[in-house]
Amino acid sequence: MIRALVIEDDEVTAQAIIAELEAHGFSAQWADNGRAGLAMAIAGGHEVITLDRMLPDFDGLTIVSTLRQLAIQTPVLMISALSDVDERVRGLRSGGDDYLTKPFSMVEMIARLEVLLRGPSPDNHGHCLEFGRLHVNLIEHSVTLYEEAVVLLPTEFKLLTYLMRNAGQLVTRTMLFQEVWGYHFDPGTNIIDVHIGRLRKKIERSGAPTIQTIRGSGYVLVEKN
């Protein structure tokens, strides 16, 4: 069972997070202030931490920067009502691994935690990604499927790379906007749908990996049997 530490001063939010974590097989401990949260994080025994940005005693930035100074590398998902890009950058530069703004969907939170828990993507050759018969060379920016070259446009390549790094896991539309397009908001366009459609036409063949749509949530790259 994956052990999570929830550092959140709002009891309603904390209990909602804990309920969702437990529904997905996590066990969770809760700290309702920064001082207790920092002490519990330093004590260890957790595989992931959700950390509110604004807390009594110590704020989230102080907590995560202290953990990193102590060489504690437990993945930290920062959660905050502060949605400005500058605030997100501050959180990440302080040592946070990802940043989620309130209000947020629990599906989004779980998806981001799963990405953090998986850690760096498997990379057999230092610069290659492989999933089924699909191969990506990150240095040459080349893609092959069944040893045949697949020609992708730059954004299609970034999209495929991100899906492969998270193969088998849900990636939400918000995650794609942030990681592929650099948007920290939903621009209200169908840009993701268009690029997913183009990518599907280029990589989906009999027995090859396929991009599944999870309605209302996002996408998953899976292998066909």
UniProtKB/TrEMBL annotation:
GO terms for biological process: regulation of DNA-templated transcription. Residues 126-223 bind DNA. It comes from the Bacteria. The keyword S-adenosyl-L-methionine does not apply. Keywords: DNA-binding, Phosphoprotein, Transcription, Transcription regulation, Two-component regulatory system. Residues 126-223 form the OmpR/PhoB-type domain. Residues 3-117 form the Response regulatory domain. The modification 4-aspartylphosphate is found at residue 52. The keyword S-adenosyl-L-methionine does not apply. Pfam families: Response_reg (PF00072), Trans_reg_C (PF00486). PANTHER family: REGULATOR OF RPOS, TWO-COMPONENT RESPONSE REGULATOR. This is Response regulator transcription factor. The lineage of its organism: Bacteria, Pseudomonadati, Pseudomonadota, Gammaproteobacteria, Pseudomonadales.
